Fold this sequence. Notes:
Blueprint: E1 3-11, E2 17-24, E3 29-33, H1 40-55, H2 63-72, H3 80-101, H4 105-108, E4 117-125, H5 128-140, E5 145-150, H6 165-168, E6 181-182, E7 188-191, H7 193-211, E8 217-220, H8 227-236, E9 244-246, H9 256-263, E10 268-270, H10 277-285, E11 291-292, H11 302-313, E12 318-319, H12 329-341, E13 348-349, H13 355-360, E14 361-363, E15 366-368, E16 371-373, E17 382-384, H14 386-389, E18 397-398, E19 401-404, E20 409-410
Parallel strand pairs: 4-5, 4-13, 5-8, 7-19, 8-9, 9-10, 10-11, 11-12
Antiparallel strand pairs: 1-2, 2-3, 4-16, 6-18, 14-17, 15-16, 19-20
Helix pairs in contact: 1-3, 2-3, 7-8, 8-9, 10-11
Amino acid sequence: MFIDKAEVIVTSPDRNFVTLKLTTDDGLTGLGDATLNGRELAVVAYLTEHVVPLLIGADASKIEDTWQFLYRSAYWRRGPVTMAAIASVDMALWDIKGKAAGMPVYQLLGGASRNGLMAYGHASGKELPELFDSIRAHQEQGYKAIRVQTGVPTLKAIYGIAAQGADVGDASVRYDHEPARRGAKPVEEDWDTRAYLNHLPGVFEAVRNEFGPDIPLLHDGHHRMTPIQAARLGKDLEPYDLFWLEDCTPAENQEALRLVRQHTTTPLAIGEIFNTVWDFKDIIRDQLIDYVRGAVTHMGGISPLKKTLEYAAMYQIKSGMHGPTDISPVGMAAAMHLGLAIHNFGIQEYMRHGAKTDQVFQQSFTWQDGYLHPGDKPGLGVDLDVDEAGKYPYAQAYLPYNRLLDGTVHDW
């Protein structure tokens, strides 16, 4: 099988997505997700101008060789743009290989290690009644594990609160499902770490009192704390038995996790903005985390993330793959196939895409009683309707950013 055609397709049904479509000389097609939230066109240029010319005529069966060629031949390695581009090629080649074999990709990765993938949803509210309603709504949708994000008194708009869409953006779109706002400039939000640290433990106490001790609860700190602040929060949340505390400190400072680890037994999940196994190497080896948050799209595809998770398995560290709606249905399917196959699966983030997205990307994966399954259709199990995609051109959009009360730009 040789690659005869490579197309980079940009569409914006409910948000911007970048998809690579490869076609072989015998007519097989493969899809890969190249979406990089808020910087999509940078990946489009990287693919169109630098990668696609290298793919035409290449052997579509050589997944590992192609990955190593694209990674090493560029010399300037790593980074989110490069790795998202390589990821799309890797996914598309696995999709083709599955179709050529007549098997779903998870079978090619070693077969299923479980019946389905437990997923968590994103509940949020500016105040407790709204938060409780959101948790109940997610339970009604089947979620058995729920991430809890809450408003903070005195702060107008912060990460992860769905109801803020009506305040600072398009009220028709759930904010926590698509925080990248369409427009010429990013939305400015506010932040106060002290107010957050003082408020959050009481929220989890109220949630536990309302919903009991058994439901797995998660929380995302979104890189906004210093090491000592994160250590304090982890310790303050211990009575409420979190499934994990995610991205408690800026990911660039991995040494910070030692201090956090010394002071709390709250499990830690790290890595949604990491790009390679090298970003995870030391914190896995030193057992500073409990869950790998890598994304198939951001980490260069199925092939390198599988290797990273196999390394993590040596230290009893599990997967917690990134999966909000800035991962397209193609990227979500890839994560599901990988999660079904590996032994050390932990949990899968899952946010439902909008109706327009589901029309553009036709999916075979299922969601039943809190568990995902990628389906048994050969390949990844996602088809792209090119005509439908063409109805939704790219729309400029940016993720928000934070300023402290004194005007200092802070981590969002």
